[in-house]
Amino acid sequence: MQTIFVQVKCELGQSYQVAQALVDVEGVSEVYSISGPYDLLAKCYVSEQDDAGHFVNKRVQTLEGIRETQTIIAFNAFS
Hints:
- Strands 2-3-1-4 form a four-stranded antiparallel β-sheet, covered by helices on one side.
- It is 23% helix and 38% strand.
- It is an alpha+beta fold.
- It has one domain: Lrp/AsnC effector binding domain/regulation of amino acid metabolism (RAM) domain (Alpha-Beta Plaits).
- The two termini are 17 Å apart.
């Protein structure tokens, strides 16, 4: 599995609806409200065979209320 984080900028007044829609997307593990230029941060797991860009394009960016996204691909997890 590859881990990606998607920062999401929502239409005004839509962050709670977008967060709930994101939680229901298969592959989205967690959704956080955040401060800064983006409203939400979604932690996603995409299989190694799947294209992360396709996942974001087809499963995330198509949700109603999303205005902009930025994707961060994680390489290693440290604990």
